[in-house]
């Protein structure tokens, strides 16, 4: 019996190493089973290998099955006993009497098996024989014969493995891209595979028999001695056996390239008796290039890490100690990396280190990317806001994990965001909420079903203050308005600047309506007081429209529209007035929208008529000009006052077209009058917003044929106030065409005198409010005398409008007015009623009203 070399697991591994199980039949094994059956005179024989779960027959004679479970196998007993095993009558053996291989029809009655031991002593299986009848025990010679056949089977198993390995090796040597060489002790090449041909450029016929110098630079190496003595110094050049060295080789083309050389001693004993070395050569050009690329990439990555505009750090996931910190990280922390690496956050930052530790723990537990933001004060005392991205990184080929962090200094970003938020939600001048925040607050209160009131505040005369004193003073005034409003409301109320000179207040609470009235009164009083700014004293006042939610509206748009109507009503009443929204205002607004629609149709169909009121010269008593006045007779409503439809036209953008129609009609009519009679047409402030106004007027003059010097254009102080510089520029362009410019309604403003000094108007029309009081008010008379005196000094004509009595006519004439206009002379009449102005009519003096 061969000595047991090891465990069952080792035996099974040895069996598997031969690769014999589940392979196709082979003649070399089949002839052994036939010979065994013949020599022993039995009907059945097999070469059986026993693995973990079964026995499998590599060859069989007289057996109709390929394998059996191991627990049924007779051979398993031989393997386990590791010796010859024989059963003369299985049916009479308690171990096998109930074995299915025995109880089956023509079952096994006799068994004999000789174990197969490989060179290492592992029992792979048996060569066995069977019979369906009991038999006497085998003789010693028969046992010897069966044992010899078992040893022959093992040899053939080993030969089979060697053959397969040789074929595989030959295939590998042929197919491999590596060069495989055999070299004799004399350093001459004895074998040269196709890989060597491809690598070096020599075919086998050229290489075999050549010295290794053919491919390796001579003198740089020596082959290891086969065991004999070495020449002095040769051991330093000898290539080591069983290791891999890097050398430089050269191809047939002369190109030098890096290689890896592995050598092993080769002994041909038992074959052709030759000795030498086997060499495997690998071209590592690509690997070297890759290593260089990797080195370059690493250097590049190191540069990127150091040049990153953000702090980058790496920590050990277990110890939490810093392993890497880039240059920006040094600047953020305020310490060099050498003082940070190897230490923990708790050691570096005792005050906040625990928070960083907890964030690291969180990202380790979540195994996901996490973001955090925190304030940080570095060792230099600089305060920064850091936004950090943390993630867990696995080490390649290891279970070790690292915490990778990227921290950006978002101090300026957050500061800019706060500034942007402030710009988006607050008025940059006053610091009050802006329109966006005002609307947002209203929306939230509506959703919350809260009771509140909205005060819409419009400053009177702010435009005049802005133009008179300049934008800097205007801005200071708005700033002071904001401060005054702040002092009048409760902390839960909202103040907003929603336009140039428009403010709004949201008063919140159940008593919102009552508080809104009190706040509105306080606002009117507070804004009425003068403003002293840089030695200038400015005056303004406020009109306020008030709406209450949800009574007056349940949406932001509805409430704002209602507030605008209430504000409009307050401004209609007069300066410094307060008006609550009522349904009547909504009806009035609806009526106004209806009029607007009809007005559009009237303008489109040119149904706006023009009436003319004469202006009489006091020096000649004759008509010098006529003022053109727009008139509209609605088919259902009847006559609609110009104060109504003209204001509507200005609000809805129709004034430009309406003004152009009136101007063209007036110019056309004037061409039929005597050449010494001019026509005066009013210009709305809105028309001056048209950049093509001067060209439009010039085109109308050319189209109608009216001489420019026969056209007078009347403008109000309100127009001048809107944009002084632009207005004066346009008036100068119109005057350059030859058109006369008149200031209408003079005396009702605060700065009219300054405008007369800056622009030489041809005539000034005194507002009729002074004419009405001339007989009863010394102040009114004094104003008229002053205007007349100023007009004479500046060379301007003075027109008194609204003259209705003979007494007014005489007094105004005596005071020095150059022209008079009013119902005393004539009411505005259509052009057809002014035939006496035609070139063919006789000249007339106006001593009384002409009917």
Helix/strand class = alpha+beta
What is the average per-residue confidence, as pLDDT, rounded to a whole number? 86
Provide the CATH architecture of the largest domain: Alpha-Beta Barrel
Overall 3D shape: elongated
Number of helical regions: 29
The major pleated sheet works out as: 8 strands, mixed, barrel
CATH topology of the largest domain: TIM Barrel
Q: What share of residues are in beta strands? A: 15-25%
**Integer-rounded radius of gyration:** 58 Å
Helical content, roughly?
40-55%
Regions with pLDDT < 50 over 5+ consecutive residues?
228-234, 847-851
Give the strand line-up of the largest sheet: 24-25-27-28-29-30-31-32
The total beta strand count reads 33
The CATH class of the largest domain: Alpha Beta
Distance between termini?
158 Å
Find the CATH superfamily of the largest domain.
Answer: EAL domain
Can you give a write-up of this model?
The protein is of the alpha+beta class and 851 residues long. 40% of the residues lie in helices and 25% in strands. It has 29 helices and 33 strands. Strands 24-25-27-28-29-30-31-32 form an 8-stranded mixed beta barrel, surrounded by 4 helices. Mean pLDDT is 86; it is low at 228-234 and 847-851.
